[in-house]
Specification:
This protein is an alpha+beta fold and 353 residues long. Helix content is 46%, strand content 16%. It has a five-stranded mixed beta sheet, with no helix packed on it. Strands 4-10-9-6-7 form a five-stranded mixed beta sheet, with helices on one face. Bound molecules: copper (II) ion. The site of copper (II) ion has 7 residues, from loops.
Length: 353
């Protein structure tokens, strides 16, 4: 790294000296100063503009062709489709505007290149033109912003009316813990000051709060398909972000406060594994892994698709490893699984013995 910085500094110093000598040369009064562009230079630069235009269009087509496959598969939550169409339309509009304006920009750069003897014609202002190029972005952006606000309000529906499952996501450097609200579906009070690792009170639950007794603390998130889940996020140390890409869900976890997000999963893990895009991705990933296995490298076990909760804030050196598996299953399977988990009250009793 130090060597790289030294080389970078040397190169920059060399460029600075070169530029300074050029300025010095230009400042000398000479009749045939070759530094001033002539018609040939202007034409040459005009064609270079076209070459650059072809390059950026080519790059765009290449990226579509090469990287479309790494995009997320179909959304696995109820609100996901609405979110995706907002995103898609924003992309489509940006793409069209970008393609047209770049084409025009480079074409006019070529058309009105400097020609000896030609004097540039200009007008100081044109009210009609200014009106047009102001009103079009105003209408398009207002439309997108209003649609975005409408979608956001729809998605951020964290009310408790339709009996959602209440789950806490607890972030800390560098792992996630989930807490289910238990039979009463009410999370017990908690505070980082009450954390007592020796007694397995890892989330700082208030033992005096009766709502905490039936809470269930787990390291793997199970969700019943078709039921709304209200997540309440907490962080123990720094800013984290609970990111569940397949459900198009993300919310910051902020120390000292509870943030919320809610969604309804619509496909079980098993159903998602049958999704053609997911099947493709698993195939591609496992081909890479098989190649690694052949060379005796690690990270070469066959991979199976699972939903995942990731941290999406760079929160420290092991941030990349901060993840938790999410399993969406039938209500039956979920009930069976949750019944096997130990409640906070029982864990405390066991640790008191
Ligand atoms: Cu984090």
């Amino acid at each position: 790294m130090t060597a790289f910085l030294i080389i970078a500094v040397l190169v920059l110093v060399a460029i600075a000296i070169w530029q300074m000598t050029k300025i010095f040369e230009l400042s000398q009064i000479k009749a045939d100063n070759s530094q001033i562009a002539n018609d040939k230079d202007n034409k040459y630069n005009g064609y270079l503009l076209f070459a650059f235009l072809i390059f950026i269009y080519g790059l765009t087509i290449f990226c579509f062709w090469k990287y479309s496959e790494v995009l997320l598969p179909e959304a696995a939550s109820e609100h996901g489709a609405e979110y995706d169409s907002l995103m898609l339309w924003s992309f489509v509009i940006i793409f069209i505007v970008q393609t047209l304006t770049q084409g025009l920009l480079h074409y006019f750069g070529f058309k009105y290149r400097g020609v000896k003897g030609n004097k540039a014609l200009f007008f100081a202002d044109n009210d009609r033109l200014e009106f047009i190029w102001t009103i079009i972005p105003v209408i398009v952006l207002s439309g997108l912003i209003l649609w975005g606000l409408y979608t956001w309000t729809n998605i951020m529906d964290v009310n408790d009316e339709d009996d959602p499952l209440i789950v806490e996501l607890y972030a800390q450097q560098f792992n996630w813990t989930a807490r289910y609200a238990g039979d009463d579906n009410v999370l017990g009070d908690a505070n980082v000051r009450l954390i007592d690792i020796d007694r397995a009170n890892v989330l700082g639950l208030d033992e005096a709060d009766p709502n905490a007794t039936d809470d269930i603390i787990v390291k793997e998130l199970h969700l019943p398909v078709g039921r709304k889940v209200n997540f309440k996020m907490r962080s123990q140390d720094v800013l984290h972000s609970a990111y569940m890409p397949h459900f198009r869900a993300q919310m910051n976890c902020v120390p000292g406060m509870i943030t919320e997000f809610s969604y309804t999963p619509i496909y079980t893990t098993e159903q998602m594994r049958q999704n053609p895009d997911v099947i493709d991705k698993v195939k591609r990933t496992n081909a890479i892994r098989a190649a690694r296995a052949a060379k005796g490298e690690d990270n070469s076990d066959p991979w199976e698709f699972d939903y995942i909760l990731l941290c999406n804030k760079i929160c420290g050196k092991s941030h990349y490893n901060m993840q938790m598996k999410i399993i969406v299953e039938s209500e039956e399977d979920y009930n069976k699984w949750i019944a096997e988990q130990q409640s906070f009250g029982k864990t405390m009793m066991a640790s008191a013995k």
